[in-house]
Design a protein that fits this description.
- The protein has about 210 residues and is of the alpha+beta class.
- The chain is about 15% helix and about 30% strand.
- It contains four helices and 13 strands.
- The strands form three sheets. The protein has a five-stranded mixed beta sheet, covered by helices on one side. A four-stranded antiparallel beta sheet has the order 2-1-3-4. It has a four-stranded mixed beta sheet with strand order 7-6-5-13, with no helix packed on it.
- The N and C termini lie far apart (about 45 Å).
- The model has no long low-confidence stretch (mean pLDDT about 95).
């Protein structure tokens, strides 16, 4: 059984949104191992002095108990183009440390920066994030994600996001999209136009 992991955003030494990560960790441990260790991240995430300034990613690797906590400075990867990749068999409903299936799909991007995984005709996630679309009035996110991220859960609960079934053929109804996860807040991302989303067999244009 693969270990699980959790990525936590730390801004100038302050861990962000710990309660959402605790929820997922405790839920995942119960599902996989049938036990509860009642994770308390405020006690676990102690930022070392060399990482108290700037944007830092804290990676917690765990099984039925905490295995490793790693801190590293975070540099955002720029994503300007995406390719639709169809796969009806992948399962990533838990945040597994083993990302072999996702990595295999990512390698099919054929010149694009990132992929959007299409499952049974419906949009799900990218290889590293949830995705949100703007229809000119509101932000929506696919109702059938591979993994519902903590950032996405929080924004749905806050009313910023609405869940909606989105089929691959619906992309043209939107003006653009953004990729979101614990390290990628929507307010920090530029809108990617839907014209930058290519079909699996389409060529990459200069």
């Amino acid at each position: 059984m693969s270990l699980l992991f959790e990525s936590i955003r730390i801004e100038d030494g302050v861990p962000q949104h710990l309660e959402w990560h605790e929820r997922r960790m405790n839920r995942s441990i119960m599902e996989v191992w049938g036990s509860s260790i009642n994770v308390k991240l405020a006690d676990l995430v102690v930022v070392p002095p060399e990482h108290i300034h700037g944007l830092v990613k804290c990676n917690i690797r765990y099984g039925p108990e905490i295995r490793e906590i790693i801190f590293q400075f975070y540099k955002k990867r720029i994503i300007r183009s995406l390719r639709l990749i169809e796969c009806d068999t992948i399962d990533y409903h838990l945040k597994y440390l083993d990302r072999g299936g996702l990595n295999a799909l990512f390698h099919l991007r054929n010149g694009c920066d990132e992929i959007i995984i299409v499952n049974e005709g419906f949009l799900t996630d990218t290889s590293v994030s949830n995705i949100i679309f703007h229809d000119g009035k509101k932000w929506v996110t696919p109702a059938r994600p591979l993994l519902r991220g903590t950032c996405c859960e929080r924004l749905i609960e806050e009313g910023f996001l609405t869940e909606q079934d989105i089929m691959a053929g619906d992309i043209g109804k939107f003006t653009g999209c953004k990729l979101i996860n614990a390290m990628r807040d929507p307010g920090e991302q530029e809108l990617i136009p839907v014209s930058a989303i290519l079909e699996q067999g389409s060529p990459m244009m200069d």
